[in-house]
Write a structure and sequence with these properties.
The complex is a heterodimer of chains A (260) and B (382). Chain A is 15% helix and 57% strand. Chain A is mainly beta. In chain B, 9% of the residues lie in helices and 51% in strands. The chains are: A mainly beta (260), B mainly beta (382). The A-B interface holds A 19-20, 23-24, 27-28, 30-31, 34-35, 37, 40-41, 64-65, 110-111, 115, 134-136, 155-159, 175, 177-179, 194-198, 214, 216-217, 232-234, 251-253 and B 11, 15-16, 19, 41-43, 45-48, 50-52, 54-60, 62, 97, 139, 141-142, 145-146, 148, 168, 172, 174, 191, 200, 202, 204, 240-244, 289-291, 293.
Chain lengths: 260, 382
Amino acid sequence: MASLQKNINILNMVRKIIYRVTLVISFLLTVFYMQSCQLIYPAEGDIVINETLIGEVKSLIINDVFNVYITPDSTNLITIECGENQARTIKILYDSISRKLTLANTAKIIATQGYRPINVYLHVNSLAEIEITEAARVYFTDTMHVSNFLFSHHGDMGDSDLKLNAENIEIKIYDSGGKYMFSGNANYLYIFNRGLATINATELLAIKVKCNQVSNGHCHLSAQKELRWKIYMNGNIYQNGIIEHIEGESYGKGKLYINQ
Amino acid sequence: MIINKYRLFVFSLLPLFLITTIRSQPVEDSLRPSIYFQASTYTGYLYAHHRSMVYFIENYTRGAQLRVGWRFNGSSDWEKAYRYPSAGVGYMISDFGNPCMLGYGHAAFGYLDIPIIETNRFVWNYNLGAGLAYVSKKFHLTTNPNNIAIGSHINSFLLITSGIEYRPTNKTTLGLDFGLNHYSNGNIAMPNWGLNTFFVMFGAKQKLDDRQKLSNATVSKATKKWENLIHFGVGYKEIRPIDGTKNFAADLHYTIRRRFSHTNSWGGGVDLLYDGSMRKSIKYSAGEYYLAHDSICNPSFVRNFSPACHANWSMHFGKITFNIQMGLYFYNALDRIYFNRWILEVDVTQQISLMVALKSHLGSADHIEVGLVWKLNGCFNK
């Protein structure tokens, strides 16, 4: 009787150990499963590359979050590199009359598609306007030659590196953050910078520059002959080089600095 | 941060730590609250409440939490009315999906875990937590200009979850929760979009002992009584356009509320709100996105004040009361119509409570304030 009880006790102990080990293993498996998010969410899927021939593009509107690489040449080709699940909701709208190209994304919950950056490679020759309405990275792989160019940002943040040769260049940043770099040559450069953005146009040599600085970020310029400036907030203007004509005043805490 | 470096190691150890049986001394007093340890890990996604947040989200989020808590045994009526809730303190580490830009969140919080339906083996519960958080990466004009979600290292932390618990043994509980955590600084420093993470959390709970007996006495009938309170809070805030200036804000309001049960009160009151940022907002509006010069627009000091009224709903948890208020402005210099206020009161004496409040305009936080609540004698009570 005693040995039977002893056997039962041993059996119970073994059962308890098995139970506890199973519990530990299932717990650890669940933890590892949960930490590998790809098993839970469909995410972006395999990478796909879609190429589309378009006509001449004068104006590019970027309505969602994209990384856009622009190469100045006459092929007029747009290539989108993204996940297969992301590709389903990306919209390319091209208006051949106004020569306007719009990039958009109709995805409601980005989390279901994964967060892989969507890369857009655009080959155009005469782009005169870029407008960003959300957030985007825009890079020129080479210098774009146009007579007039407008870069306007109504979104929340971004980064850019634009290389331009133009008669007139307008840079308008409305309540955005980020770092925006410009290089090249221009006769006239107008900058309106409001929000938190920092503009580095030291490499953009402009004969005449007008700068309305309403940002907390700084603005770096290289006016060659004339600089008209106004500062309304905390951001400074840094002029690269001494020039004959400088006119303006500060209504905020920011100052004009001239680097010799 | 050393905790960031070794976080995976810590995450891996937590479950093992919990599953290990914790031996404890026999407890004589069966009414003593039963202490438990809890560890959980979660995965989820950062909710892009501004579309452009997708710009800096690179991956799904992960995190883990540790908790120490106890279950109330029903010695008070409110404990029985809430079906014997648990309370305690916790620590949560959160990865926001882009460690380079957003860093990690380290939150210390207090929480309340309230059962909705409970059987011998299963519990469906909900969980409310609030505390302070340290976020390791914040906005910086030159080094981190795209992090416009977090403007300061110190932030408030809110947590809400609901889930199912399964008790395989008397001491061990496994839990699966769905929830949301929120990090923001209440506009103390801008930019401050805040970070909201929706997640699925899996964890385990280990009680030190299972001798606690819950009181089975019925809930006594609640005394329906009026309460008269004066709240006074102060805080500061930044507004757009961001220039680093701090604006003082204050709030004085009177609330009368009637307690209908051990857990709830309804009421209303009147407010006098002061917002020192009004002047800047008016000048910004007048200047069409420039701050207009004083010669063009010079609002008087009086325009910083807004009289208002509010409706109030209070949830009572013993010495802690949580109020949700919806207010209407009688006058507001920016022509705003309504506001919301979320108030946490902690009783210090029978007459005085400390409060922390968040004023918002629906989902848009306005400012955080701290202050005192003075409970007047119930002049309406018979």
